[in-house]
Amino acid sequence: MIEFGTQAEYVVSILVDGILYFYVCLCSNHDEAVQMAIAEHVGKDLPLPLGTRCLVEGVCADSACNCGRIRVRDYRTLPKSQLC
User: Fold this and answer.
1) Other C-beta atoms lying within 10 Å of the C-beta of residue 14
2) Strand partners of residue 71
């Protein structure tokens, strides 16, 4: 991972119908990375059904932790009225 000040490189994997899409995002945390990747994915007019699995790998950015370890977080897409 490459760190740039308070931002770092996060890798987001989105699995849809057996196809794995990868996105690299420069951001502050896992949540921001998954939101950026989903916006890029949907912007390309690619499918994103409810319950789609999104894995985000990047530097631990928890406010109470300064460990700097690489963490993988698992997300699932929700209806448009809610965040992924």
Assistant:
1) 25
2) 58
